[in-house]
Amino acid sequence: MKLTRVESQRPVGPAVRSDVSLLTAEDLYLFNEGTHYRLWEKLGSHARRVDGIPGTQFAVWAPSARQVFVMGDFNQWNRSSHPLSVRGDSGIWEGFIPHVGPGMCYKYFIVCDPNGYQAEKADPFAVFSEVPPRTASIVRDLDYSWQDASWMHSRAACNSLNSPISVYEVHLGSWARVPEEGNRPLTYRELAPYLTDYVHRMGFTHVEFLPVMEHPFYGSWGYQTTGYFAVTSRYGTPQDFMSLIDTLHRRGIGVILDWVPSHFPTDGHGLGLFDGTHLYEHADARQGFHPDWGSYIFNYGRHEVKSFLMSNALFWLERYHADGLRVDAVASMLYLDYSRKEGQWIPNRYGGRENLEALAFLRTLNEEVYKRHPDVQTIAEESTAWPMVSRPTYLGGLGFGLKWDMGWMHDTLQYMIRNPIFRSFHHHDLTFRMLYAFTENFLLPLSHDEVTHGKGSLLDKMPGDSWQKFANLRLLLGYLYAQPGKKLLFMGGEWGQWREWQHEESLDWNLLGEPRHAGLQQWVRDLNRCYRNEPALYERDRDPSGFEWIDCHDAQSSVLGFLRKGSETQHAVLVVCNFTPIVRYNYRIGVPWEGWWMERLNSDATLYGGSGHGNLGGMLTNPFPCHGRSHCLNLTLPPLGVLFLRYLRS
């Protein structure tokens, strides 16, 4: 989509009305107190009528400014013709400009004394912006006729921690492109039917979008946000993105948005040095500048910044009907010494390394989100051993609904990339997780971070020849779905993209014409179906009684056997993984109940591109004790394969 600046249809005089306002005295008080959580309704630009005259109300926070002007299409970008007026001691500048309407581009021109600072700034509360690299804000309404009432009414069950949650992670600009039109990305509306049909067919319960908020540098994938309230205009308008979410909802698919309250870029039109002072960020670089990302860090102790971030989180949940927020880089918020050497950070008031203001903000965030929207989830990307990330704040936790299990991801990938000959010496990489698996509400991620920056794709990471690579990846994905915890898989991993992810190129969909890629895709589809239809695989994700090792000690054979159990007695799925390319016949494994165990899934089935070794659909138990259980199964374990066996009857 291409946006152009709208030229004024009539000249607008210099008069700016300062006698009308959207802000009440209570708004100003709550904003300065840090407890105004609906600022998008008050600050920014709002087209309205005053005394029958159409125009736009502008309001911006710039407490250190001497003067603030609005410049744009309507005044030929004159820096000084349309001044705003300050509202008391609030630091907010406001004014109504007649005959400025939707579609017009604008910026704020900020003048600050005594240092003579001058800057043209985009609106921090703009809901729409020019297509990068242009940076002006655009007056825009958010009117949209939602058709997802049924989803919104019933989504609590789909988003529940007791329900199956299988997330398909998507970067909007590279899921699919149009090579016939200069390799352009699909727009939001073009993407909607294709992505929705695909996700529904594949059986994922949710889509997670990498940050959709406006960002100047495309290569940041959205993680360098400048327009916190503006959906990126690269793929269309706010209403176009709403339509995409609406389409997903109407097919029963939840939408999670990646959200970045941890840092923001230094681009001149952005939040940094907004009014000539460090308004949104800390003034001291030891607190306010991120050494890894070259970006500013929010000052979580400033009341108005808390109002800004809290309002932003609730904005995406309320105006865009998002079903969850995945909060990026939480670890960098928690620790004052994150990625810093001695002497490069400032201890808290107790002399510790914990960022007390960030902790307070995160706890307030989760309390307010769940108070207003108990049917959504907040998800922390937190990579350290910080305790109780996903435990309630009244127990001392941070209050998130879920936490990414980065430890599982790291240990499992480290194990899987090894030649199977050496895996027996690293068996603990697989078993260690169960020592902490129920200390948090975990989501197990195989995310975009693992398939870029030279790391290679999931398929390419796997050892062995081509057949073994596919078998290993089927095994890895089967192991993912068998483990306690919710699931996340980045696009392309479900059918074995060979190349690592490139944000400026489409996924290689043509590979699905090859049987092994199509077989892998079918495997993921069947994993999702099994996961959603077998309560034993999700009902007790957070309960140690829902998991039981059968045998975790056979390091020599690189075999694991464990039981997933549901809430009903004898409702169970036995999972057996063989991490070697050797077929193991008559492998005895204990089971707690006598009867028939149906082979629910077998990653080595020829349907998926495997060699066809299996157990002919299931097996009756033998009355011989094994692994401390009263009965056993004599199984054929397929090479580099995983079996799911469901208990059916006594």
Structure report:
The chain has 650 residues and is an alpha/beta fold. Among the domains are: 25-138, Immunoglobulins (Immunoglobulin-like), CATH 2.60.40.10; 544-649, Immunoglobulin-like. The chain is elongated and about 90 Å long. Residues 1-12 have low confidence and may be disordered.
Tell me briefly what this model is.
The chain is of the alpha/beta class and 650 residues long. The chain is 23% helix and 23% strand.
Relevant terms:
single chain, 650 residues, alpha/beta, Immunoglobulin-like, eight-stranded parallel beta barrel, six-stranded antiparallel β-sheet, 14 helices, disordered N terminus
Reconstruct the topology from this structure.
Elements: H1 25-33, E1 44-50, E2 53-61, E3 67-72, E4 85-86, E5 92-98, E6 105-112, E7 117-121, E8 137-138, H2 149-159, E9 166-170, E10 177-178, E11 184-185, H3 188-202, E12 206-209, E13 213-214, E14 227-231, H4 238-250, E15 254-259, H5 285-288, E16 289-290, E17 295-296, H6 303-318, E18 324-327, H7 330-334, H8 356-372, E19 377-380, E20 402-404, H9 406-416, H10 420-423, H11 428-431, E21 442-446, H12 458-461, H13 466-482, E22 486-490, H14 515-533, E23 547-551, E24 559-565, E25 572-578, E26 584-591, E27 596-602, E28 618-620, E29 631-637, E30 641-649
Parallel strand pairs: 9-12, 9-22, 12-15, 15-18, 18-19, 19-20, 20-21, 21-22
Antiparallel strand pairs: 1-2, 2-5, 3-6, 4-5, 6-7, 6-8, 10-11, 13-14, 16-17, 23-24, 24-25, 25-30, 26-29, 27-28, 27-30
Helix pairs in contact: 3-4, 6-8, 13-14
